Amino acid sequence: MEPNLRIEQALTRAIDLATAPPGPPRLSSAIRHAVFAGGARVRPKLCLSVALACGDDRPALSDAMATALELLHCASLVHDDLPCFDNADLRRGLPSVHKAYGEQLAVLAGDALIVTAFQVLGIVATSAPTRSGRMLATLATAGGARTGIAAGQAWECEEQVSLPDYHRAKTGALFAAATVGGASAAGADAEPWRALGEKLGEAYQVGDDLRDAICTEQAIGKPVGQDPLNGRPSAVAELGIEGSRRRLDRLVQDALRSIPPCPGRDLLRAGILQEMHRVLPCKLSMVAA
Amino acid sequence: MEPNLRIEQALTRAIDLATAPPGPPRLSSAIRHAVFAGGARVRPKLCLSVALACGDDRPALSDAMATALELLHCASLVHDDLPCFDNADLRRGLPSVHKAYGEQLAVLAGDALIVTAFQVLGIVATSAPTRSGRMLATLATAGGARTGIAAGQAWECEEQVSLPDYHRAKTGALFAAATVGGASAAGADAEPWRALGEKLGEAYQVGDDLRDAICTEQAIGKPVGQDPLNGRPSAVAELGIEGSRRRLDRLVQDALRSIPPCPGRDLLRAGILQEMHRVLPCKLSMVAA
After folding, report:
1. Which residue ranges make up each domain of chain B?
2. What's the whole-number mean pLDDT along residues A134-150?
3. A3-288 has which CATH code?
4. Residue B21, preceding bond cis, omega within 30 degrees?
5. Could you report the per-residue pLDDT of A88-118, keeping only the tens digit for each?
6. For B8-23, b where at least 16 C-beta lie within 10 A, e where not — what string?
7. Residue B15: closest CA among chain A residues belongs to which residue?
8. Which of A8, B72, B211, B220 is 20 to 30 A (C-alpha) from A178?
9. Which residues does chain B have with pLDDT short of 70?
10. Residue A142 C-alpha, separation from nearest chain B C-alpha, in angstroms
């Protein structure tokens, strides 16, 4: 089955399970809004691509890992948009969850999505204990307070921030979990896959900082110019636009070089390049060629 | 080892792991504030009591379940205290997390505690796949958007609320997870333990509503009179003080009668009665005798 379709079907199964009656209807609706609002599914696609490159002999496991990562990502977006953080009215061109459903349901939808992410891994855990143990640890690290997305967002509340540490946690954590988790789901030796995820995560974050600096709200479906407005550390603030473009280029090249030997190496490489072109601002897509 | 000590040691191990360097120091501090601020540990004590009543042959599993439940509970308290919900300045006589660390770190500390709860179960998952699968499902249900604490809090955002559904999700879910999870951790048939948790959860919630109505802020370490102020459904609003006292009494009696046959039945019964006396408002403690 085509990866995009696999991902949407797996997400639908997970959210149907998490929001079936007798749950409170407005919370269910807020959760669906958070998950099914046109996300690019970058992380689950990367996870499935790595699993496929490693043989993908247990698709139920790679589907679960991909789904869990996307749910954790959606949770972080909902919470990041809250008034106390970015106070963003728009996300992917639609009202953010707190704008559409209020702040209370946005907090709770994010919480429920974190729970659902782990629930999805819990469902497959008994059938493949060793792989699932690694997948659970990978997801927990990616979400956590040390090097995960909670840490990444929290670095914005510290007086001293190192930009690479901040980016590694805020964005790199879920990308590293996508590659390590995808390899784990396929029963491969997972640690050699970490560098690919880390490099792609950094590249994606630099790309995001560039989009914030040079794109229009219409083009990317969310407010731009937010990084300087929120005093947030950004590659553009540190390296300028040209410096950030060079950094992005180097990160993508490093990422591709880091791919471990595996049956589907060439296909994975092509898929990653295609994906990076798709998600980067159009003016910049030549740099990663 | 004495249960209180087991719980504190297990919580300390979990939080040390979740907040070790290189995590952002203020987030780590906010997480510690949320977990180590004098909680009564009602849910993990209930979990260990049930595990002990069922033989507790794998204490690492019951410790993990008890810890995970308390972390999920702490997360819900941090988020419930936020300005968009209760806007509570105090919790257990200390500043609430958002008062002490700001709203951003309160959101993130709650998120990280949910992640850590599942991480703790993930650590023991490979060593006992069948029991851990049940424990993971139990935790996910207890935290979730259908019948878990996210649902419970979200019922406050609906126009139509049934008080039993609301209480069952908001408080009963974690109590049911404590009994079902404790029994699962000990390898017992877990479903027959659900009624005990559900009844105790309802009793505890009715007791909480009564505390809000008749106690002083000094006596319980948090603002009182919040339920009518927040237009929140409450047993006192529906049944009055006398009606709530009678309901509480009946729930505790039903709970004790529901205990399934097990080696440690009498000790468990005595422990539950002692615990209910300890946590209920002093003026009411006679009712549960």
Report:
1. 3-288
2. 97
3. 1.10.600.10
4. no
5. 998 888 999 999 999 999 999 999 999 999 9
6. bebbeebbebbbeeeb
7. A145
8. B72
9. 218-222, 279-289
10. 9
